[in-house]
Amino acid sequence: MEETISLQELFTTLKKRIGLIIGLTILAVLIAGIVSYNFLTPIYETNTQILVNQEKTDAAQMLNQNIQTDLQLINTYSVIIKSPAILDQVSQQLDLGLSAEQLTNKITVSNAENSQVVNVAVQDPDPAIAVDIANTTAAVFQEEIQQLMKVDNVSILSPAVLKENPAPVAPNPMLNMAIAAVVGLMLGVGIAFLLEYLDTSIKNEQDIEDFLGVPLLGVISPIKEEDSSDSQTSTSTNRKAG
User: Which position among 1, 52, 77, 79 has the lowest Cβ density within 10 Å, counted as fewest Cβ atoms?
Assistant: First the structure.
């Protein structure tokens, strides 16, 4: 019985403060939308692909060994691509004025499992600069790896291309607004229960029992003004009739 009463009180509180909850949720969504569309800088991403492969050979067994060697080298190549030995030259060639560490934050290197293709993704507020960084990084790496590791097994498979109307990858306004809606809803519910907890006014018979600590013996029903007027009219009529 106590659980039922608690649930009833819970839903009663939510129903009483529904305006506050909805208002905070809408406000949070509006703020997230305004910030996402007007204040956050859009970020664009472009990709270039590098193929790691040995020279062709007629022996199939030797070819398989070369592939396994290339796969083992890819992790090393991923580190070298983001090293100062490569990125310092990229920054100098493009006259970016950025350090290797700053460029590293813009570049992501990855490859699919058991794949000899290394994907270099670059993010930047300017899509043209992102394309330049990606292609220059691939070109510098292809040249420098011959000196660093004495190998010639790297070729550019797919250079980055500047699209006509590139779409930003961040921010995602709809996702931000959805998260804001959840946060606003939770905040509204929390404030609703806090206000209910802080409200110590007596509203019903149960509040009186809880406040005084004694059982309730009776309740005086309110007398409506209409009933009182009807009673006075009836008394006046009876007097006239008498």
Answer: 1
